[in-house]
Design goal:
The structure is a homodimer. In chain A, about 45% of the residues lie in helices and about 15% in strands. In chain A, the strands form two sheets. A six-stranded parallel beta sheet of chain A has the order 2-1-3-4-5-11, sandwiched between helices. A six-stranded mixed beta sheet of chain A has the order 7-6-8-9-10-12, sandwiched between helices. Chain A is an alpha/beta fold and about 350 residues long. At the A-B interface, helix 4, helix 5, strand 2, helix 6 and helix 11 of A face helix 4, helix 5, strand 2, helix 6 and helix 11 of B. Strand 2 of chain A pairs antiparallel with strand 2 of chain B. Chain A binds a DNA duplex (30 and 30 nucleotides) through helix 2 and helix 4. Chains A, B: Pfam families: LacI, Peripla_BP_3. Chains A, B: InterPro entries: HTH_LacI, LacI/GalR-like_sensor, Lambda_DNA-bd_dom_sf, Peripla_BP_I.
Chain lengths: ~350, ~350
DNA sequence: GGTGGCTGAGAAACCGCTTTCTACTCTCGG
DNA sequence: CCGAGAGTAGAAAGCGGTTTCTCAGCCACC
């Protein structure tokens, strides 16, 4: 069989075959395909015609190797099923897509060891990395920084490793939430704690503990980051006689809400519930969830801008710390029997 | 500066540098790194030591080019923010991850033109593709089949293009839903239709229309696939005096639920609501959503198995059509004023 | 002791594209 | 009329791996 015949079934269409078909060198085909330099219009026409006829599509892998960049960025998140991260992901894909970049995603399932491996591997396949709320320790992260660069952090801050950070002021969010609950007369708050590895969980906890003593009683309950965690811990809240729940995130709040409903406990009549993040579901449930709203899609956008700057060796815009906006909805109300109000 | 010195800051560590440092050929380093053939243990030791000392990590891009495979698969979905797709994605990443494959994700935002472009581009960057509920026409899909292969379809079927399909028996799901509602005495059902481009929407609509005449009145309302769509259309349902809502999916059902609640309409007292998919939120809302449960994570797993088989040039397992399981929860109840029951 | 088979490692080709370098042609000015 | 300079396209050297091919060395066997 004549292996030089164009369009032979099994043979992949490479730049060489196009060059051959157009009667030019591979270099010229490359130039035409990239719209580079000035090529004789007639030659360019022949090349384009041949490329179209053969259905030529340059190999992205070969280009990546030659160019030293892949046109892909990776994002690593702790929990693929958390809409919070999905929205960040969405913001990121859209922004990156506009610049012709595609996204590799990896979920660590809250496992630090897996996270470390995934981050390193994902980075090697891409030009850059977005680490979303990484669970690994600061030391470990700092140690990997050189290997991972360029990368940007979302919901995490590690000074001195030269990675841009996009932050949420969890403390401010917590302060707003607590102020809201105190105004409603709540005196005994249960905090449903997130994963101990979560930096934002620590921020929130610190903010709660840092409140002037005597303003309210704080009950700290180990919980987690998912529906099921919130669902499982609700009974304990009741046993502790807290009148308000401050959940690590919206998912946990939903879980608790569901359990309370099962038990016939009225929300907010008997217990108020507050979430964190403001995932899209929060406004559509019954009752709608009071929560600290975090600009999730915006985080994704901003993450891309920082990463894009790094990829182009520009100086990224300075770090931002977003202040969550308290969305007061139906899941919070006056504490039972309380007379205080704002 | 001596460019041959190992570990020189700027210089990337390539296989050549390792070979040089270990005093062997690049071929030998390659063999050692891949655990291939038998290499003199002493040489292998030297290579491993050098690789470790230099922090060598083979370039995935170069490997991809040489091997002709990337170790990545892509998934294209219409809506990145729909938990249904996120769960499929989750199932897929986990299953693929076990075989050392990473995931490229792309969301078409329900735009057919974008979907076509994304699918083609994503495929070129990866070894295979999963098209999740593709919106493009059958002809177009068939036309691209050769370019996209190997790929597998989820929630879509196009006979004769040689792509494995994983299906959900939407008609059966609808039949169960309708039977359930009829038993509760509902006689006027509103169907909140999904995107016209959605094949599963057509399946559901056909199943509804195909019901024996006279069993119930069907009100078809154009809607969409998101919260906001369901939220916006709820008023129309009331105007039409339907006593039950059959929503295109859970998201739409939630939106409608939220709006009904805002309006003070009792669910299921005045209106019953049924979703489709059974996303995790469905069981935790108030009232919990009655819905046709689709094994989302399983779809992801199965998609990987089919794709993996194709990648290995094995024959994939035959297509599967999953039958949804009706999850009766709190959002459905007797039609107002109805005496009928099962 | 010569030869055949076998093992193990290096040389070199190759994957498909980009880009520098080089050679050639053509134009224009002195 | 000749040489400099601009413009164009091809040759070839990468990019960083893998793999075939080749060959040297060793052992065993006749």
């Amino acid at each position: 069989m004549d292996t030089s015949r164009p369009g032979r079934p099994g043979a992949p269409v490479t730049i060489g075959r196009v060059a051959e078909a157009a009667g030019v060198s591979r270099a010229t085909v490359s130039r035409v395909m990239n719209g580079l330099a000035s090529v004789d219009p007639e030659l360019a026409g022949r090349v384009r015609e041949a490329a179209a006829r053969l259905g030529y599509e340059p190999s992205t892998v070969a280009r990546s190797l030659a160019l030293g960049r892949t046109g892909m960025v990776a994002i690593v998140v702790p929990d693929l099923e958390n809409p919070m991260f999905q929205r960040v992901l969405h913001g990121l894909t859209d922004a990156a897509g506009e610049r012709g970049h595609r996204l590799l995603v990896a979920g660590s399932n809250e496992d630090v060891r897996e996270e470390v491996v995934l981050a390193a591997e994902a980075r090697r396949r891409c030009d850059g990395l977005v680490l979303c709320a990484p669970r690994m320790g600061t030391g470990q992260l700092a140690g990997m920084a050189a290997k991972l660069a360029p990368f940007v952090l979302v919901n995490r801050e590690v000074p001195g490793i030269g990675a841009p950070s996009l932050l949420v002021d969890h403390a401010a969010g917590i302060r707003d939430i607590v102020a809201h609950l105190l105004a409603l007369g709540h005196q005994r708050l249960a905090y449903l704690a997130g994963p101990p590895t979560s930096a934002s969980n620590r921020d929130r906890l610190d903010a709660l503990r840092g409140y002037p003593a005597g303003r309210f009683e704080l009950v700290e309950l180990e919980c987690g980051a998912t529906f099921a965690d919130g669902h499982a811990v609700a009974d304990q809240v009741l046993r502790e006689r807290a009148t308000a729940i401050v959940a690590y995130n919206d998912l946990v709040a939903f879980g608790a809400l569901g359990r309370l409903h099962e038990l016939g406990v009225e929300v907010p009549g008997q217990v108020s519930v507050v979430g964190f993040d403001d995932i899209p579901f929060a406004r559509y449930t019954t009752p709608p969830l009071t929560t600290a709203s975090v600009p999730q899609v915006e985080l994704g956008h901003q993450a891309w801008h920082r990463l894009w700057a790094l990829l182009e060796r520009r100086t990224p815009e300075p770090d931002v710390r977003f202040t969550p906006r308290l969305e007061v909805r139906g899941s919070t109300g006056p504490a039972p029997g309380a007379l205080r109000y704002m």
